[in-house]
Each structure stands twice: as C-alpha cells, then as structure tokens.
Specification:
Blueprint lengths: L1 E5 L3 H13 L3 E6 L7 H17 L4 E3 L5 H8 L7 H18 L4 E4 L9 H15 L2 E2 L8 H10 L11 H9 L17 E5 L7 H7 L3 H8 L2 E8 L2 E12 L2 E8 L9 H13 L5 E6 L4 H6 L4 E6 L11 E2 L2 E2 L3 E7 L4
Parallel strand pairs: 1-2, 1-4, 2-3, 4-5, 9-10
Antiparallel strand pairs: 6-7, 7-8, 8-9, 10-14, 11-14, 12-13
Length: 339
C-alpha cells in the first residue's frame, strides 16, 4: 500500500513511521500545517522534520505555506472550538494531495497524540476521504506516544511546548487566568484538607455523575478507600481507590461537585493521594473516557495500558462525555515512584 501520512511534527511521527515501515507500508510524509504560529515555531518544526526525513530516507511532500492569515480567518468567530477547523484544514488537504498524486490512502501522525480530540479527527478524516474519493487509513497510534517522545528526545529533536496555534500558545503562558491588581490581598480562607470518608454511600448521587452505573459503583465501594478534599465542611472533590494487586491501586472515581469544577480541586486531591499511596504501591491505574485522557496524561498517567472495547455500551443507559456517546474505556497508569 502506498500511504501518504500527514505529519504534524517529527516527535509525533517517528514511532508511527517506524511501525508502518516495519509492516511493509510504502510511506511518504506530507508537511502541511498552516495552524502553526509564530513563523519561528513553524520553521523549527518544519526544519526538524526535514532533517529527520532525510536521515531515514523518508520521501517528503511539502506544501510549505505559513498560514497565519488563512488560519485566523477560519477560526475568528469560533476560537474556543477552533480545533475542528484546524483538523479540517490539514486533513482535507492531505486527502486532496493523496488523490492527486495517486496514493492508495492517507493518514496522520496526529492520531498518536492523547491530547487531541481523537474521535473528532477521525470524523473529519472520513469526510475528507469521501469528498476526494480516497481511502482514509485509520490507526490508533496513541499506545506509541510516550515511546516516540522518548526516542525524539534521544535523537535531539526540537520538542514543541504547545499544540501549534497562537491561541494554544496563549493558553500555555496565561492559562486563561488574569493577574490580581498590584497590592491585592486575597481574603483568608479555611485550609484545604484531605479526609477519609466513612460513609461513601451517602455520596452516591455525586459518584454517579462520574460513573452512572449504580450497580458498578456499589460493587467497587465494598472494598474501596474513599477520600474527600474539603475546605472546612465544604466538599470540593471526591476520589475512590481500590487495590488491584500488591503493586497497583486503581482510581475508580474522581468527581467534583458542579459548583467547584474548573478550579483545580480534583488535581489537588489526586496529587495528595498519589503522595500517600506511593508509600505502599508502585503504580496507580485509571480507566477513563476518550475525552478525559488529556486530563490524566497531564497529571502523570503517561503509560497506556489497554483499551476495553465497548465498555460503556454495556451500561444500562447511554454514557455521554462532552456531547459524544462513550464506547471504549481507556486505561492508563502512573508510576508512583517516579521522581
């Protein structure tokens, strides 16, 4: 098979390239990323890919267009939902090029990233394939992500610090927050503390917001440790952990009351519990929906373990996350002993 792979950057591409070549795929890279800004960042990623492709004799097709104005026009009225436009720009052009140059199919190195909206990218690629009459070769490369990143560092690749566009760079530096005015003194607050919960069943309505199967929740609560992050008597976040084996504890449920979401309380509770459980266990496992993978990866759950296909389809009612129906359970692990 002659396959055209859209490449977002060399660190993401190296593991899929190696895998596909080992399987006998006749692979060509395709550089087209008008979403990457500023121009210095664009050139750094492009030049790194050029050097990598040359070093492994990978054919590389380039549409070398720095697309600041084009990209900004495309997302100007939908900045907060810009990723769909970003995927469309790149994947549609890849499909078009694959058709024009006689490739059997196309794919993208974007499918290795746990930080991207995998299902949205897949849907966009399928529409592009239909429009241009060329096959979309789907492959979930995410299990290769961390090995690929480690290899990229070992090879001295340029390692980017944000997704690509100016808005993701803004989020990297500002995080969406605003600084306090000079001389501002925040009001005193009660100390945050983590407490063991003695009556977890009392929190069933909240636990069901994260895991809507009451039967399943009641089952794992039988042998669970349940902890709450509180400010005085105010519940800020709740976590349920269950021993899996002598070396592993599993995070079964992590949920924050709606009024306190988006303030980092789940992260604080998780960090505290990782510090506690590292005294006894070597790793912490979590099973999560597609949409929550980035949350856990950013908090150290950086080892892909497995995917349980159609896990949520077996629930008595449909499970939704971010407006999308969930099907598979994705399991990741955190090394608790890692410095």
């Amino acid at each position: 098979m002659r396959l055209l792979m859209h490449i977002c950057c060399a660190p993401c591409a190296n593991a899929p390239v190696e895998l596909l070549r080992s399987e006998g795929v006749e692979l060509t890279g395709f550089w087209y990323n008008p979403n990457i800004h500023p121009v210095t960042e664009y050139r750094a990623r492009r030049d790194c890919l050029r050097e990598y492709a040359k070093s492994i004799a990978l054919p590389l097709v380039e549409k070398d267009e720095y697309g600041l104005r084009e990209f900004c026009r495309a997302v100007a009225d939908k900045i907060d939902s810009r990723c769909a436009s970003c995927y469309e720009m790149r994947l549609y052009e890849t499909a078009k090029t694959a058709k024009e140059q006689g490739f059997d199919a196309f794919t993208s190195s974007l499918f290795i990233s746990p930080y991207q909206n995998h299902e949205l990218m897949k849907a966009v690629a399928e529409r592009a394939a239909e429009k241009y009459g060329v096959q979309f070769y789907y492959r979930d490369f995410r299990p290769l992500f961390f090995a690929g990143q480690e290899r990229a560092r070992a090879l001295g690749f340029y390692m980017q610090k944000y997704c690509g566009c100016v808005f993701s760079e803004e989020e990297r530096y500002l995080g969406g927050g605003k600084p306090h005015p000079e001389g501002f003194e925040p009001p005193r607050r009660a100390a945050l503390e983590v407490r063991r919960v003695s009556d977890p069943a009392a929190y069933m309505p909240l636990l069901l917001e994260a895991d809507p199967s009451e039967e399943r929740v009641r089952e794992y609560l039988r042998n669970a440790d349940v902890y709450a992050l509180r400010e005085g008597e105010t519940l800020l976040s709740l976590a349920v952990l269950v021993r899996e084996d002598a070396k592993t504890v599993e995070l079964k449920n992590l949920v924050t009351p709606e009024a306190h979401r988006g303030k980092g309380y789940a992260t604080r509770l998780l960090k505290a519990l990782c510090g506690t459980y590292r005294q006894k266990y070597e790793r912490m496992l979590v099973g999560t929906t597609e949409g929550n993978i980035p949350f856990y990866v950013k908090r150290g759950f950086d080892r892909y373990v497995r995917t349980e296909k159609d896990f949520f389809l077996r629930y008595p009612q449909a499970v939704f996350d971010g407006g999308h129906r969930c099907a598979d359970l994705h399991c990741y692990a955190k090394d608790l002993r890692k410095k």
